[in-house]
Design a protein that fits this description.
By secondary structure, this protein is mostly beta strands. The protein contains three helices and twelve strands; from the N terminus they run αβαββββββββββαβ. The protein has one domain: Porin, CATH 2.40.160. The protein has an eight-stranded antiparallel beta barrel.
Length: 250
């Protein structure tokens, strides 16, 4: 009984002596991807382009020991996926070119295990809620009024019209679950209380958010998405990059 008491007392004192609460705010600039196998397998009709997004938010954490803690965030987040594609014009060797993009806004709620304090490694899970989604598409030329017809999947294609900020939130699932991994450092700015935080963090939504492809079509849009393609039509956001912030130790 005495052993149990002294062990409990030792653990309690150890956690109390090292415990520390902190809070702050941060900003991240990310390379962003909407991972979709149907898009990746499509060929020149749908090529992905380099895309960037960002998030900002607040964080709060608690260190149980000098090297082990937990952190939670609330991060309004923007994920951008740009595309560049082209179709063969009927009866010619020329092609019709377009640019499109999907902008997905989410509110992310990471829950992280922190290992280390001045320099740290972090991993955890994330709950993500889709708040907004929009789609844009522009063609390089006015193919429609020039009476062009393209061939897409051996079918005549006539949809040569531009789209600006079309609401496509309904095509996405409203909630996703993801995983996070990252590392970074906290640099003392003032009396070991105010610190500059910077690091790298990578986020991946594991669950399928469905969504749309480069032409703005969802998985049920036949014949442009075949029955076979609809089975692999899954959207998993992936984003990661540099984050910087300020935190205060209480």
């Amino acid at each position: 009984m005495k052993k149990i008491f002294f062990i409990s007392l030792f653990v309690s004192l150890a956690f109390t002596s090292f415990s520390q609460f902190y809070a702050g705010a941060h900003f991240a600039y990310n390379s962003t991807w909407l991972m979709n196998k149907q898009v990746f397998d499509e060929g020149p009709e749908m090529d992905i382009a380099v895309s960037f997004g960002n998030y900002f938010g607040v964080m709060a954490g608690y260190y149980f020991t000098d090297q082990l803690g937990v952190e939670i965030n609330i991060n309004p987040n923007k994920i951008v996926q740009k595309y560049r594609g082209d179709f063969k014009l009927s009866g010619t060797d020329e092609r019709a070119y377009y640019n499109s993009s999907t902008v997905l806004n989410t509110i992310d709620y990471p829950v992280l295990l922190k290992i280390g304090k001045d320099a740290y490694f972090e991993l955890g899970c994330m709950f993500s809620s889709v708040s907004k989604a929009s789609y844009n598409k522009t063609f390089d030329e006015d193919y429609f009024n020039n009476f062009n017809v393209a061939i897409y999947k051996d079918i005549p294609y006539f949809d040569f019209y531009d789209i600006e900020n079309m609401d496509v939130k309904a095509a996405f699932k409203t909630f996703g679950i993801g995983a996070i991994i990252g590392f970074g450092a906290n640099i003392n700015l003032y009396e070991d209380a105010l610190k500059l935080n910077f690091g790298l963090r990578f986020n991946y939504i594991i669950t399928d958010l469905q969504g749309i492809n480069a032409l703005g079509y969802n998985k049920a849009y036949s014949p442009w998405v075949s029955a076979k393609e609809s089975k692999v039509f899954k959207t998993n956001p992936l984003y990661g990059g540099l984050k910087i912030g300020l935190l205060y130790n209480f």
